[in-house]
Design a protein that fits this description.
homodimer; mainly alpha; 0% strand; DNA-binding; HTH-type_TetR-like_transc_reg (chains A, B); DNA-binding (chains A, B)
Chain lengths: 181, 181
DNA sequence: TCAAATACTGGCCGATCGGTCAGCTATTGT
DNA sequence: ACAATAGCTGACCGATCGGCCAGTATTTGA
């Protein structure tokens, strides 16, 4: 076997960063190839097509979620909520670039000059963020919120991993009304 | 002036629906023209380019937000939070297709088979959704959450306007820990 | 009645997209 | 030493994209 000067791993590394930065549709095969230092044709030697690259990037997330669900299956109440927070923060940190991909196109649109800086209004909402709800909308709410945390943290990679993990866990627990132990 | 058989309003109506359904990048000028029943060249007679269509669609949102901010400027505490909820729900309903545009690409990616159905995990998070935080992440959190509400409600347009408005307002107030009076 | 202006269109353009293919190169096992 | 093969590439393909333009039809005000 000839030495692989440009490996699959290099391609995946370039792809996940570019997808996270410019979105899936906003990243061309040529962009990835240039970043990885190889030709576009080399990409399609290692992967059947562009979509297969994204598929491989997202593939590990599914089983990890399934495993977390399994760990939560036997738990109830506060213990379950605490384990869910810990597990989700851990997953979000390990797959933070993947999560960023999901939010990239939102980023691109939300930063358009026609749209307002929503901070001032949201500030007032968060002044008294609390309450309880089992309405179906809130599940989407909570899911998007978790993604929102990662969106913020993903661009602050200078923060040490462990510090970030502790901060996120503490913030999530506090927001859920659980003791931050 | 010749009679406008295909007006600017028709084009904008087609565009906002298609952008909301398939995203900005996922909608071509030809798609819009076909839906509006005119030629692609006619689009570019009424609008300087594709981006100008999106710009015009998003344009009214900014001033409305600014006006809401002005109304909130003199308020404090619970009164401010309540007015913010009412105003945001109202804005979200009036511009629900615009908001859907922002979330469309998230939709496309989040429904990939490699990704898990996050409902089971999020269920446990929402079991005890409460708490309080003034961390900077939470502003993004709250903003994404508000978008999440709309994402859910936008696909349920069969619900009467007033019912939806009341439900959203009540849910938001309850989640903020304010009396739903 | 008739130029002027508006509304609109088919056809075309260059650029870029994802993807294919024949062939080159370097390393491998024998 | 030498096929075999993995890794990689330049060149090219058809499709599609946003955008341009000359030209046509319709309605207008004078």
């Amino acid at each position: 076997m000839a030495r692989a000067t440009t490996t699959r791993a290099d391609i995946l590394d370039s792809a996940v960063r570019l997808f996270a930065a410019h979105g899936f549709r906003g990243t061309s095969l040529q962009d990835i190839a240039t970043d990885a230092g190889c030709s576009k044709a080399s990409l399609l030697y290692h992967f059947t097509n562009k979509d297969a690259i994204l598929t491989e990037l997202l593939a590990p997330v599914g089983p990890e979620f399934a495993e977390l669900e399994g760990r939560l299956a036997g738990l109830r109440g506060e213990e379950a909520a605490r384990a869910a927070v810990t597990g989700l923060v851990d997953l979000s940190l390990r797959f933070r670039l993947q999560v960023k991909i999901l939010l990239q196109d939102v980023d691109a649109l939300i930063n358009r000059p026609e749209l307002p800086d929503a901070d001032h209004i949201v500030e007032r909402l968060t002044e008294a963020l609390s309450g309880r709800s089992d309405a179906p909308e809130v599940r989407v709410w909570a899911w998007m919120a978790m993604l929102g945390i990662i969106l913020t943290s993903a661009s602050e990679c200078v923060i040490p991993e462990e510090t970030l993990r502790a901060e996120l866990t503490r913030g999530a627990l506090r927001t859920l009304g659980l003791p931050t132990g």
